[in-house]
## 1
Amino acid sequence: MTTVYDWAFCDKDTGNIEYIMSVNDTSSYSEGGFYNNLLTLPVEHDSDHVKLMNESYFDVDDGAFKTRLKQPTRYYKWSSNKRWELDTTQLMAEFREERNQKLGMCDWTQGPDSPLSSDKKTEWSTYRQALRDTTSNLKDDFDTPDGFAWPTQPS
């Protein structure tokens, strides 16, 4: 019977478990060693790996796995401060990408050869400006674009 060993590969600065791997040969790993610049630590073979990754981190200062709250949204990253911190760069990049797609879908409404009446063009122009203004009108607690109330597109 082959013995299987499970190893957690953790970010050396944050302790975040990047992945867990089961191996038959442990010769490439050592407790507290490094593999591909990740800290290697053995974990119980019968542990719930998904739960371990979602609800734990390795506290480098204390040399032990500790529990943590689940990630609030996918835009939070586990930090070296031992807490979830909002990654506003990723959040805003994805938000702007979605906004830009909405703008791109209605570019045709503003062209000189658009079949729309001048009143309809004005409605679409107002809508497009509202889309551009979304980034400056976000609430202070904005931490996910999921469920965001986009301006209503003209009919």
Note: The chain is about 25% helix and 25% strand.
## 2
Amino acid sequence: NYSVRWVGRLVPRYTETYAFSGVADDAFVLELKEPAAAGWTTVVNQAGPAAGFSGAMALRAGQAYDVRVSYRELTGAAVARLRWSSPSTPVEVID
């Protein structure tokens, strides 16, 4: 039983809708925030046994978005993977 929170920034190359996907076991929440925004936008909110998830958000090229990932592991094997892609960006892992 533990939880982890990762924070960072993403800067998209293109003004497009970006797809976020991955797999997580027990609970996984992905939130994004523009610097001028008052609050966070929940892009993914997945809970339950190991399962794939997806969400999408329109992003602007060159704009730095704050990223917050919350992950909770209850029992058994742990897994949390996050990727993003867009029409002009091949699928890549977000480290």
Note: Residues 30 and 69 are 5 Å apart (CA to CA).
## 3
Amino acid sequence: MSALCRILLIWCLSQTGHSVNLPDLGHSARNSITLQHETRLAQALMQQLRQQRLLIEDPLLTDYIQHLGQQLAPPEQTFRFFLIDRPDINAFAGPDGHIGIHAGLFLTSQTESELASVLAHEIAHVTQHHLLQAWEKAQSLTLPQAALTLTSLIVGAATGSDAGLALAASSQAALHQHQINFTRQHEQEADRIGIRLLAEANFNPHAKASFLRRVSQANRLVHTPLPAILLTHPLNSQRTAEAQDRADDYSYTQQQPDELRYHLARVRLTRQQKQPGLTITQQQTNLQQGRYRNRQAAQYALILALQDAQRHAEAQPYLDQLLAQAPDIPEFILAQVQQDIQHQPEQALRRLHTALQQMPDNLSLTINHAELAIAQGQYQAALTQLQKTHIHRPDAPRIHQLIARTAAELQQPDQTHRHLAEYHALQGNLTTAIQHLQYALRLPDLTTPARIRIQARMDALQTTADQITP
């Protein structure tokens, strides 16, 4: 049993005792799971994904997918969007507004509206409390079955369809049928609301139907096993036709060009996934002959390829063009920083400092600024910027790691241990996290308020660690 399976099982026990006997709450699924426990479950999910090295933690990619999701999501609810390092064509909605998109699905999309259609569908699953309703409907099941329902919904989708199917198959036949019924029951509602979210955010409302149709047709042509998204989100011709009909209800004029950052994210993700790409010569030829979807993205891909080959001088003219056209795009700024580092590292740090004045909360700029400042011995400058970003991104492990490093250089052991504790907690290494807090409590000059905060955090981590111990 995986760590998250154990977490779910103990979490179920803490909610219901040894038998599953939830009250009939009608449409009030929220009452069967508290916000606090849903948050803990989401934290456990993210820890498990990090432990299995399934999260793509490229800050530029994380920033883009979060930006896209926020355009679609209702402002009154908090969502966390992230990318999963798997080639499957899949996506999932987890607890507490956590939505994962597999790299394979991102790269299968041909337009930003197609990618947005998947995010909108998963957002609808969250806003309609489908995951909570699954738990509520499981009240007739035994505890192991109920725990397995949640696990197959979250772990199965997050780590690939095979895991989800294996979990379902290992349960009793009744649970397997329950899972299928749950999925089919809510897909239509998620389609309807998702298409409305698409249209309201000025994306192409027809993108959902076209994406699913193309994926299904491609699958039939190559006779491969069904893509994971068609297993976890079953597709039939009627559902596709209904999605098309719903899209027809919304007015849609000439499609606007995809946002530049969608194309840049595709370039970075293709590179991160180590997919076979064009040679540098082929990329240069395509640029000259106009064979590309987006010229700036094609130039960016060539720049990254030239930098990988240590051909920085050849990359500079292309980068000069991009910066002249779009000087505030983080991807282009960071590409220029890589150029500067070769011969002018001080200039690279100044460039990052200037960019952070315009985008002070940008995670990629902050991390690169801190790493370069540390390399140049400017620890206080690094720490100051890291602390600003940490306020808005307390869930970024790399920020905690860099704060700990700079604090150590500045002889601030309490900050060092506290942030190392948070770094390891986010990674799911609770024993190591608690040890660092214990080290912090032993510091002789620790103030009373700091001691109280550290003790409270250590107690919370210890409680969580006790719950997940088999």
Note: The mean pLDDT is 81.
